[in-house]
Amino acid sequence: MSHNSFGHLFRFTTFGESHGPAIGCIVDGCPPRIELTEAEIQRDLERRRPGQSRFTTQRQEPDQVKILSGVYTEADGIQRTTGTSIGLLIENTDQRSKDYSDIAAKYRPGHADYTYQSKYGIRDPRGGGRSSARETAMRVAAGAVARKVIPNIRVRGALVQIGPHKIDRANWNWDEVDNNPFFCPDAKAAAMWADYLDGIRKAGSSIGAVIEVVAENVPVGWGAPIYGKLDSDLASAMMSINAVKGVEIGAGFAAAELTGEENADCMRAGNDGAPRFTSNNAGGILGGISTGQDVVVRFAVKPTSSILTPRDTIDRDGNETTLITKGRHDPCVGIRAVPVGEAMMAIVLADHFLRHRAQIG
Asked: Could you tell me what percentage of the chain is helix, strand and coil, using 3-state DSSP and rounding each to the nearest 5?
């Protein structure tokens, strides 16, 4: 598998750099005759787009997507997929490459500069080049296509922790997620986070976060044992997102503190013939196969490495030096990771839907 591609039957490949002329992706495996418009993809991109609040980077990118291939407008005026590769493109319009001229020969701590240079012997220092989170816009675009493949499944994400401050799950309200700049389901926590993050931002620093993504209406049976596990593919998908340093399914790491009695998701007879689970510590997946419950994934995002505080580093010649990162950066990159996590969940589920259909019929 190419290191620029993800997925099996539903598969996408991205291209482009942070400060290049454009970014784009090719989506393969989308079934034919699915209604798909640029406006539908744009809706998801709007949620990830930078510059929408003081808590994200002020880079002003419209992220206007163009469908280049893979759709056709039929006689009834409806645009549908043709079953061929879907080409998507977003032009970059607000690059400030000069912000990176002073650090082109220096390795930014916490970034991929050193590893990228060591591996390839060349790198684009402007905004991180290929390793920039700018690439995630194309994941969101591909995720919008994936949602159309699995229209009965609802995928939603929320920010559940910034720094040490967690939401109160008793206040969880999905309707609140789009009513604040944090994708936070707890209105009280969102108000507190605003003051907290203002302090982080004004200090020129950054902070990490935890995102939770939930998929509802996933039927029982998706995934396979051992190397085709639904949860292992979800973990791979979330770990592939920039700055992610931890992933958990269901109870996750908290399961280590539970007894067998507490952790077991007991079953009772449901009215519809399917079992009724009394809890969901497994996160909707057992033995790598979906249980029919909500699929629940959380991932931890590290603090943005681009901060205004001087830090010790070395340059390409091995000389010790200090570095201050200029430019426009997210004080908490985890905020805009919410729609990216949703997209990766949708992509994995679309892939497993097609794999299940191919195997079972």
From this structure: 35, 25, 40
Give whole-number Cα distances, 263 to 114, 127, 233, 251, 270, in Å: 42, 44, 23, 8, 20
Q: Could you tell me which residues are beta bridge partners of residue 300?
A: 210, 246
Rounded-to-integer distance, Cα 175 and Cα 77, Å = 34
pLDDT, tens digit (0-9, with 9 covering 90-100), for 149-183: 999 999 999 999 999 999 999 999 999 999 999 99
Please report, as a single letter, which amino acid is at residue 239.
M
Q: Where are the alpha helices (DSSP H) in the chain?
A: 38-48, 113-120, 136-149, 187-202, 230-239, 260-263, 337-360
Rounded Cα distance between 190 and 195, Å, is 9
CA–CA distances in Å: residue 154 to residues 60, 86, 151, 256, 295: 30, 23, 8, 29, 10
The answer to whether 181 touches 51, Cβ cutoff 8 Å, is no
| Out of 13-27, 46-60, 177-191, 226-240, least confident range | 46-60
**Residue-wise pLDDT tens digits, 177-225:** 999 999 999 999 999 999 999 999 888 899 999 999 999 999 999 999 9
pTM over cut 0.90: yes
Supply 349's token pair: 């589920």
Nearest CA to 140 out of 358, 346, 352, 354 is that of 346
CA distance 249 to 280: 10
DSSP 219: P
For residue 59, is pLDDT > 60? no
One-character DSSP codes across 38-50: HHHHHHHHHHH-S
Higher pLDDT, 328 or 325: 325
Q: Residue 94: its pLDDT value, please?
A: 66
d(CA 155, CA 140): 13
What amino acid is encoded at 334 in this protein? G
CA distances (Å), 249 to each of 37, 281, 285, in order?
33, 8, 8
Q: How many CA atoms lie within 13 A of 204 on its CB side?
A: 9
> In this structure, what token pair is assigned to residue 250?
């269901």
The mean per-residue pLDDT over the stretch 271-298 comes to 96
